[in-house]
Here is the input.
Amino acid sequence: MRFAGFAKAARRLFPGSLSVLAGALAWSQACAQTPEAQGWYSQGVEAIAERRYADARVAFTRAVEADPSFAGAWLDLAIAAQAEGDTVQAEEFLTILEARFKLPPPIALGVSNLRRAIQGQRPEREGWRLRAVFLGGLGYDNNANTGLARSDLTLTLPGAGAVLLPLNPSLRPQSDSYTVASLGAEATHEWGRGQVEFSASAKSRVNASLREFDTVEVLMGAGYASSEPVFGGALGLLPGPWRVGFTTQQLRLGGNALLNGIGFSVVHAWKDLPCSPRGGIELDIRHFPVAPNLDSRLAWVSGAASCDVPWTGSGGRVNFQWRAGWEAARGNFTSDRGRPGDNTRHLELTMSHRWSWPGFNGTHRFEAQAQWARASDSQGYSPLLADNAPRRSSRLTAGLAYTVPLQPAGIDEDSWLATLALQGFRQRSNLEVFRVKGEVIQLTVQRSW
Here is the structure.
């Protein structure tokens, strides 16, 4: 049974033939080295035999996490991904297999044939690939109006000192239930050595009572992505993949345009390094129709990484991201178009952890996320607040989400999915007017085509 795992994977490459295994059984890297890896592999074999490809992928992933040298599991992982229709991941797994292991000639031939089969699954280069996503649900927000955390506000009036001003109850947090719905679509087309991408989405949240705080967000974007090295891979520092993109955004509050934005981004990934680190730059141009003195330009530098962490549990994967930004006011600070606080420094740190495991109807997922964000102004915000002190604020957001498929499907993302999400935030500041907090619970269903 030492080579049973590799033999089963090889049979799926060469259905109806066992002769190809003669040269493969002497391959020392074909078997599992740990009982845990073999246990997960057995579950994957059972799932793939029953055409539960999503469950098989989860199990084979756990097997290679427990034993990265288990070549047979890498091969079956590629076969399961291809059977599920995920051609991109299937090719990535085959690339890992070929890079890490010296394949016996019969198996190398089978891998080559599998690559050709994957290419045959892809749409013709001339065609467009389209995808749409619908989401709808219900929620409850205990601070639907983003009310202040305090019941009074301290004003610093010139010549009068500090004055305590009781707040109107309408400015305090008000809870409300709401409905949410969104529809998004994307289209991709191969062009040159990469692909062009177009996307559009609209999301609406309607409160049961506080209708003046209803929101509508519309996004449109275009981009180009490629796996080719940047500038020919000069010095080997930018091997790809990379993407450049352009987005437009409008956010409406209570029926009125609150924010219009344009964004430009460049992102590069180093997929062959551990945790596939990514780096990028972004530029956002913001316009506030109701308060033009808040208009600004915001430049970001960002970095991110995603790592498998099997020691944290089933399907463990952790994601990190940091962003540092500089927001420059559009108007002169000393003019009547000056932005309160003038320029602002931003810093964001985000961490999320996802667990996934085979369950009823497909793969179940549980995700925890936390984000810390800080903003610091360069000038005083207002003479009426803390003697015109520059604003300093920090925001901590934490959330949990559990997603389950509502029906069996060959690809989990193509089935109806239900997600229960909880989120809470706390924002602290040296200026009382920026101290807010709130919690939200939301249940949604999602369908992709």
Summary: The domain at 129-448 is CATH 2.40.160.40 (Porin).
